[in-house]
Amino acid sequence: MKAAIVGAGFGGLSAAALLAKEGFDVEVIEKNEQPGGRASVYSEKGFTFDMGPSWYLMPDVYETFFAAFGKKPEDFYTLKRLDPAYRIFFGDGDPVDIRADLEEDYALFDSFEEDGGEKLRAYLASAKEMYDLSINELLYRDYRSIFDFLNGRLIMQGSRLHIFENLGTFVRRHFESDRAQKIVQYSIGFLGGAPQNTPSFYHIMSHIDMTMGVWYPDGGIRAVAGGIAELARSYGAEISLDEPVRRIEVEGKRATGVVTEKGRHDADLVLVNADYAHAELDLLDAAHRTYPEKYWRSRVLAPSAFVIYLGLDREVPALAHHTLFLDRDWEAGFERIFDPNRAAWPENPSYYVNVPSRTDPTAAPPGSETLFILVPLAPGLEDTPALRERLYTRILDDLEAKIGEELRDAVVVKRIFALNDFAERYNAYRGTALGLSHTLLQTALWRPAHLSRKVGNLYYTGQYTHPGIGVPMTLISSTIVAREIAERHPRG
């Protein structure tokens, strides 16, 4: 049985491996010149950049995925736990480091407020409880109706889920100081949300990064994508590159194949890992769409991003592997991203700097540094060279001032990637970098479905579907949909 997979992101690659292992004849058809999707790689003058994901979190999910093949992550790449896990510059003081040793983090929170360490200990215990519930009951299950969501165990746990309380309110009940509140909320950006529109359930992110740790795979996230691609190929999956899909062909209520710029690929089923909105609006006729344009216009999109790739001819010791710069008035920053009436290019944004060369000597030439600087942007904004250069200047001014060091005279590689690039390279709806935000009504049952409601053998995986945004979530999404495909299309 032939399975055609549209898109070689983490969702497409992992689904290809799982389906090929089950005996399907799998072909992955990728628009761009390399596998990995948003985890693309950019190299110039000896500098190598992971263009997209840069945090390796939830190592247990990767272990579970590879265990399905009798493998371990270390069969494909070597992991190193980062210490410090990350560094934070606040708007009004010296930086602080979040360490791999929780006792040091408890002491840090004690310096923020009275009994801060005990408060953090209790907060992380709650986050762990929710994480365990998620892994065991929520994340690996598909949701087709409210009855799937409200099973007996979840109803009993309902009061502890705090699903109707937002993260911002939940955090303020636990911590008084601005610094403590920001540290336990910053990671909500990984879910493409803001504290005021994300359910408090997602405080599990603090357990994920502070307790489970922040890791780095030697060679970068690209090594993980390469490992999964290697795994898929080892089971016979084919990966075709530089072949944009132009149409999913449907006869009656069944997909019969995909048409690309190079020809037609017949298929017994089609699995889409490309941008969900793009697939529905651009690759399918209107009669075969589960979600029309009106649906997508009504969604809360996760942010786009303004990304600066810089290669410097010297090292920058003030920066850790992961460094966050959190603005004093970050609530105004969230409004510029999520409030349609105030959406605009930022004035004084919070931003993130990734310096993989602090850990990985292959990321930059000796004595040099590779910087990946990310600023969240509202999706759908106008994107012009003038706006890009203005924000670049603003960010570099701020970064140089906070670390007390000139950087521009050391730049030997510079590239900017923003809204128009996300739309062009990844067919991203309105230039979003991540897909749909994790609001209450865009979680679990209320995310776009894995199975088309109009086409019986058309499936979807990736960050738009349950469980959502992030590389671990896409691996789980593919596990869910591959299991469903194997059950509905059994191999003899």
From TrEMBL:
Query: What Gene3D superfamilies has UniProt attached to this entry?
Result: FAD/NAD(P)-binding domain
Which keywords label this protein?
A: Carotenoid biosynthesis, Oxidoreductase
A GO MF label: oxidoreductase activity
Pathway listed for it?
Carotenoid biosynthesis
Listed transmembrane segments? none
What SUPFAM superfamilies has UniProt attached to this entry?
FAD/NAD(P)-binding domain
User: Which residues does the UniProt record annotate as the domain Amine oxidase?
Assistant: 11-485
Q: Does the keyword Plastid apply?
A: no
- Can you say what this protein is called? Phytoene desaturase
- Source species: Methanofollis tationis
Q: Which Pfam families match?
A: Amino_oxidase
BP terms from Gene Ontology: carotenoid biosynthetic process
